[in-house]
Amino acid sequence: MNHRALPQENAAAVALLLATNPHALGGVILGGLPGPWRDSWLSGYRSLLDSEQPWKKVPVNIGDDRLLGGLDFAATIAAGRPMYATGVLEAANGGVLVLAMAERMRPLTASVISETMDSGRLQVERDGARRECDTHFSVVALDEGLEPDEKTPDGLAERLAFHVRLDQSPDMSELAQWTRSDLQRARRRINSIRIRQSLLEQFSQAAFAFGVSTLRAELFMLSVARTAAALSGRRAVTDEHAELAVRLVLPQRAQRLPQSPQDDVEAAPREDEEQEREQTPGKRDMPDDVLVDAVLASLPDKLLEQLALSATSSQRASGGRGGPATKSRLRGRPVGVVVEERPQGARLNILATLKAAAPWQSVRRGDSNTRRLRLRPEDLHINRYEDRVETTTIFVVDASGSQAAQRLAEVKGAIELLLNDCYVRRDQVALIAFRKEGADVLLEPTRALARVKRSLSALPGGGGTPLAAGLDAARAMALGLKRLGRVPAVVLMTDGRANIARDGSPGPDQAEVDARASARLFRVEGIESLLVDTSRRPKPRAQALANEMGATYIALPQADANRISTTVQRTLAA
Amino acid sequence: MFPFSAIVGQDDMKLALMIAAVDQSVGGVLLFGDRGTGKSTAIRALASLLPKMRAVVGCPYNSELGDEIDTPGVPDDKQRDRLVPVPVVDLPLGVTEDRVVGALDIEKALVHGEKAFEPGLLARANRGFLYIDEVNLLEDHIVDLLLDVAASGENVVEREGLSVRHPARFVLVGSGNPEEGELRPQLLDRFGLTVDVRTPVEIKQRVEVIKRRDAYEADREVFRKKWSRKDGVLRRQIVAARDIIDDVVVRDDILAKVAEICIALETDGSRGELTLLRASRALAALNGKTEVTEDHLRRTGPLALGHRLRRNPLDESSAVVRVDRVLAEVLAA
Question: Does the complex come out with an ipTM higher than 0.90?
């Protein structure tokens, strides 16, 4: 058998591998804005598929009825009995599901897709009907996220072997050498490709070295290596294929850089207990250097930086995007259906409409023989939804030297009590501190309140007061959350004094000016905020700052946690 | 279906599911933890492990012969029963309320103008298992329905002019990833046992998982056959345990220990004690023992009590650690 080389470029290699073994590899996240590069990848990939394979685009706001299937209104009226339309997940069977703006996808939509991929079965229980069918598809997730928090939902990303970032025009020309029958031949051989036990162990070790805990990574590496070997006409996986597999699968999953064992304690992403567990094997199983180097070489610089950071700070945000989406008005808890003569932009509740119409059918049909349904405007019911709004409370703490140590302790105490409250409301919490030259995001929005407490107790005090930087960091985070459809609320704890300007230079005058300017933007952007004056005696300065921000003002001396908490709630309710 | 016995490691997860299979009154299992650890694989595998049960032919509620339930269309004296697999019903994401509780049969209503009840998922899950994957993503109004029915064992439908009640006793099995959001305490409380599922970190174990998964994907039939004997052993173990569970004795001093453990942990209500007791009894039966010992309490304690501790969002030590600490103190004395 003659041996063939796989495409040099990752983007092209990914297209080839995925087209050959779509079900084992799941799919790809295609990162980058729409444009010729993305189109070029997509058409290159499509050229490897059979023309009859479905290619189904899923818009970001797809409703469950179109995703899963449901009552077809027009057909039901025409037939006079319930008629069902298949959803996109079923229609994509044997082909490709293309997810538009995957970074904005509702968690629930992502979970439905993930679950269907896992089981290869679709089970629909909707609108008075039950349907079960097999469906297998691969996923191309078009991810246009620019910020770190804009990304394809974790649960779905986990099930897609590849992540291609289109930072340049992908060279897809090499794909022209591969015919569909080449792919078919390779596909038949994949399962018979042998692999050395030592390579499997190296996969696991490499995954461990980069802090990748999910076992799917290793399964993907195995599949990539086998598929590559089959395509290049080998009978067994060679080192080259193994390296390719690690290079394509691990970098996007990396949680940390390979460290010497004592650093592992810092690097582990979660609770202490897990750190202990993870640490132990690290000491004896140092991974194979070749594979680790392959991953290191293919990590983008930005990611490398992030990982290096996380290895020292141990404060990685949890990836979860919990709770129901708040963006769409078309989901949530149905609080009833209402009759409306001309539903505009609302979603018709087909089932309720049909039920309203059912008793009148024989009367309305009269002598007519047709089975067509007779609907009247008064039959039409539309859904009313009540969305639970998810709040994120951003605590911004002045940790500068002007906050006497004892004062800082009081502030910490107040926040801890407030956290209990956030817990009851299931709010997310974020923590920003400012001192010395700038502001630090100590904790991205999270529900793991124990981590907030830990960050808080580790919070050092001292240095200048860069109030403007603190305000800017809080505003940036609040705006980011708004983009995600959440409701941010900023709780600023300060005495209102500033002595470091936005550019980091000392001097109270410029610092005050900058702080005022930053504060004004809060009012402009309409960010709900609360200022807790932490000075020993309430000062007009903090009051003035609150006015600039459009914030509710409250002084800590009188502020027990209960009062702050009720004020927060009142501020939010407004 | 991946064979239950072929699952590598994850002893807690397997034990919790076995206990639920032996004694349904333990009240459900929640598997919470890392992605890609085979949580849903284990639950689906459990289905094929369960011994069959007798149910009335044509009954939408899988009722037993002699149960006083109206089986639509089947007169009482004509009822027959047969062996059927224990239902393991999936509650899929995106499910609508009408399909969970049952609703007016829309086809009959439109075409024939008839008012008929079409049973939902709760009916089908009666006497079996109801499985919710990604349980923390379930919409709140569906959760409310489940909470009510799981507590009463009965589904009451009053809608669209229908008035129907039918038994809905099922074992709730849920799985989820804590990163997707926490669970409402009321829902958490409905689960008898919880397991904190973690990814194996031993390289050897991980490689074994990959190898078995690989063998399974390569030829499912061959793989299933290879493991069918071991699955059979587990099935017989469940049957044997069910036979003797009513004879398992719990001595007074063990009862006192159970109470002492729950007091020390300040668990809310008496559900903790009951669950710990029942789970330990099921474990004893699984081991072929006719008496509950302290070892059984030690083994089932973290599963039965881990999620019942007074919620303190600021306590950093994990629940399992706290339970283990108390178990060590009480049982050593």
Answer: no
At position A481, the amino acid (one-letter code) is L
Centre a 10 Å sphere on the Cβ of residue A551 and count the other Cβ atoms it contains: 23
Question: A461 CB contacts (<8 Å, ≥6 apart)?
Answer: A399, A400, A401, A403, A405, A408, A435
Among the partner residues B113, B181, B321, nearest to A322 by beta-carbon distance: B181
Instruction: Work out the angle at residue A463's Cα, subtended by the Cα atoms of residues A460 and A464, and round it to the nearest 5 degrees.
Output: 130
Give the pLDDT confidence of A102-126 residue by residue, as tens digits: 998 888 889 889 989 988 888 888 8
Query: A112 to chain B, minimum CA–CA distance in Å?
Result: 6
CA–CA separation, A364 and A360 (whole Å): 6
List the 153-192 stretch of A: residues with Cβ below 8 A of B. Answer: 154-155, 158, 191
Q: Does the annotation count B271 as an active-site position?
A: yes
Q: Is some CB atom of chain B closer than 8 A to the CB atom of A112?
A: yes
Of B99, B159, B271, B298, which residue is the catalytic one? B271
Query: Which 226-265 residues of chain A touch chain B by CB within 8 A?
Result: none
Is the Cβ–Cβ distance between A531 and A541 less than 8 Å?
A: no
Q: Report d(CA A141, CA A101) in Å as an integer.
A: 8
Asked if B133's CB is within 8 angstroms of A128's CB, the reply is no
- pLDDT of chain B, 333 residues: tens digit per residue: 899 999 998 999 999 999 999 998 888 899 988 877 888 889 889 988 898 898 888 888 888 877 766 656 666 677 788 899 999 998 888 888 888 988 888 778 877 777 888 888 999 999 999 999 888 888 778 888 888 888 788 888 887 778 888 889 999 999 988 777 777 777 888 889 999 888 888 888 999 999 999 999 888 999 999 999 999 999 999 999 999 999 999 999 999 999 988 888 888 778 889 999 999 999 999 999 999 999 999 999 999 988 887 655 555 567 778 888 888 888 876
The nearest CA of chain B is from the CA of A154 a distance in Å of 9
Q: Where are the alpha helices (DSSP H) in A425-507?
A: 449-457, 467-483
- Alpha carbon distance, N-terminus to C-terminus of chain A: 73
Q: Tell whether pTM > 0.90.
A: no
Phi and psi of B108, rounded to 5°?
-65, -35
